[in-house]
Design a protein that fits this description.
Layout (H helix, E strand, L loop, with lengths): L1 E3 L2 E3 L2 E3 L6 E6 L4 E7 L3 H18 L4 H17 L1 H12 L3 H8 L1 H16 L3 E3 L5 E6 L2 E5 L5 H15 L2 E5 L6 H13 L6 E3 L4 H10 L5 E5 L2 H12 L4 E5 L5 E4 L5 H13 L11 E5 L3 H14 L18 H16 L3 E4 L17 E4 L6 H4 L6 E7 L2 H9 L6 E5 L3 H10 L4 E4 L17 E2 L4 H6 L2 E6 L6
Parallel strand pairs: 1-5, 8-9, 8-11, 9-10, 11-12, 13-14, 13-18, 14-17, 16-17, 18-19
Antiparallel strand pairs: 2-3, 4-5, 6-7, 7-21, 12-20, 15-16
Length: 477
């Protein structure tokens, strides 16, 4: 078992100020694979102090200096890429093929996207009225990241903080801390100044809250549940720090009767089940126009039954376990709620798949004839569970799609691209995927309503970590 009880503070791996061990479990075996320390407010104080001291000099570094460090980090990440993939498979349970092709890949793609954006960013510009606009790093940043796409969210927060000249303290999820500690090793190897990046493990109630409330933290960037995001915002309010949030989703996926059904229904089911359904932007509500509803159910049932469950260490396109017993219990409760509320099971259901009695494995589940008032249509399940419901008209589809407290992503499937853009313009979501188009590195990621505020990735992600200063100059003689 790995001993990972130290924190990375001020350029060194240091012991916590008070012992408080936690075992990290492999979700496929339910057995411990590592032991970490759970930090407290005093550990956070030490990390914030290091970040504050480092900001005095790192905040004055040049763009060229920071680009050189980021380029070196990119080289190191590529060299240690397989380590990252294996680490995420170990602690998250993502199948190794998926870890290599998706989970670890984001560490390259987002970093390159930020490098490209930083090269285009103007830190000083003259306005049309003759005043000067300066962009400056915001200061010390508290970064709180989730377990479901761990290095994805770490890269989307740590990289723009360091790229803009800010310093940071990272608190990763206690369920998946090992990839964060590996990333800390890479940052150290790249040569970032001591204190520019710091890492303290812990839970949200203690280490996370200490970061959000800390008077010397200028900004908090949080990714997680909407409930936790509200708490972070309240904790940060007393010090009036900037807060950016990337929260939950219940993304609608509208299939019109002119869509390529075989391709788009297949793709929609597989996208919902990707990462065992543990994605905030997963297309979990499939809205289908009535003339093609029956045919859609035939395709969805076939594809759903073909989705296999397997061990994370196996190569292949199967799905793995959920991350924890807590998440497993939540998903089971919502599957049972769907059955109790009258939705019809097309595939899957409650309980574990045959042969997977050990581990947090869930049956890939599809509900049909769902009403948008049901819990499985309104709550974020965060498991491999798809809810399918019919609609008649374009306006009805838009109304159902927008009838949610969330607004992260939406999906539109139609051969009429003019209609796709017309519908997309009416959807209250931060991202709309048309006919299977993927998210591309460098584009902004984020949502409307209770899915959060701010945007991550590329130029928009850099701007969240910058302050704007205006120089009002006297008129030229």
């Amino acid at each position: 078992m790995l001993d990972k009880r130290k924190f990375y503070i001020n350029g060194e791996w240091v012991a916590p100020l008070a012992a408080n061990d936690l075992e990290v479990l492999n979700p496929a075996t339910e057995k411990p694979v590592a032991v970490i320390s759970m930090g407290t407010a005093v550990d956070v104080d030490r990390a914030v102090a290091a970040a504050k001291a480092a900001f005095a000099t790192y905040g004055r570094s040049s763009v060229e200096e920071r680009l050189a460090l980021l380029e070196k980090l990119l080289d190191i990440y590529k060299r240690r890429y397989e380590e990252m993939a294996q680490t995420i498979t170990l602690e998250l349970g993502a199948p190794i093929t998926m870890s290599r092709e998706q989970q670890a890949d984001v560490g390259v793609g987002h970093l390159q996207g930020f490098i490209d954006a930083l090269k285009r960013l103007s830190m000083r510009e003259e306005l049309q009225n003759g005043d000067i606009l300066l962009r400056e790093p915001i200061g010390v940043c508290g970064l709180i990241t989730p377990w479901n796409w761990p290095i994805n969210q770490i890269a989307l927060k740590v990289v723009p903080a360091l790229a803009t000249g800010s310093t940071c303290v990272l608190k990763p999820s206690e369920f998946t801390p090992l990839n964060a500690m590996l990333y800390a090793e890479m940052i150290h190897e790249a040569g970032f100044p001591a204190g520019a990046f710091n890492l303290v493990n812990g839970d949200g109630l203690n280490a996370g809250a200490a970061l959000s409330k800390h008077a010397d933290v200028d900004m908090v960037s949080f990714t997680g549940s909407t409930r936790a995001g509200i708490t972070v915002s309240k904790d940060a309010a007393d010090t009036v720090k900037r807060v950016t949030l990337e929260l939950g989703g219940k993304s609608p996926n509208i299939i019109f009767d002119d869509a390529d059904l075989e391709d788009r229904v297949t793709g929609s089911v597989l996208e919902c089940f990707n990462n065992s359904g543990q994605s905030c932007d997963a297309p979990t509500r499939l809205l289908v126009q009535k003339p093609v509803y029956a045919r859609t159910l035939e395709i969805a049932e076939r594809v759903g039954r073909e989705v296999s469950v397997g061990q994370p260490t196996q190569e292949g396109t199967h799905i793995g376990p959920l991350v924890s017993d807590i998440q497993f219990a939540r998903v089971q409760a919502l599957i049972e709620a769907g059955i109790a509320e009258g939705a019809r099971l097309l595939t899957g259901g409650a309980g574990k798949p045959d042969g997977f009695e050990v581990g947090y494995f869930v049956k890939p589940t599809i509900f049909v004839d769902v009403d948008n008032s049901m819990r499985i249509a309104r709550e974020e399940v965060f498991g491999p569970v798809l809810a399918i419901m019919p609609f008649e008209t374009e306006d009805e589809a838009i109304a159902i799609a927008n009838d949610t407290s969330y607004g992260l992503a939406a999906y539109v499937q139609t051969s009429d691209l003019a209609r796709a853009e017309r519908v997309a313009a009416k959807l209250r979501a931060g991202m709309v995927h048309i006919n299977g188009a993927p998210y591309r590195y460098g584009s902004p990621f984020g949502g409307y309503k209770q899915s959060g505020n701010g945007r991550e990735g590329g130029m928009f992600g850099l701007e969240d970590f910058l302050e704007v200063k205006t120089l009002h100059r006297p008129d030229a003689a």
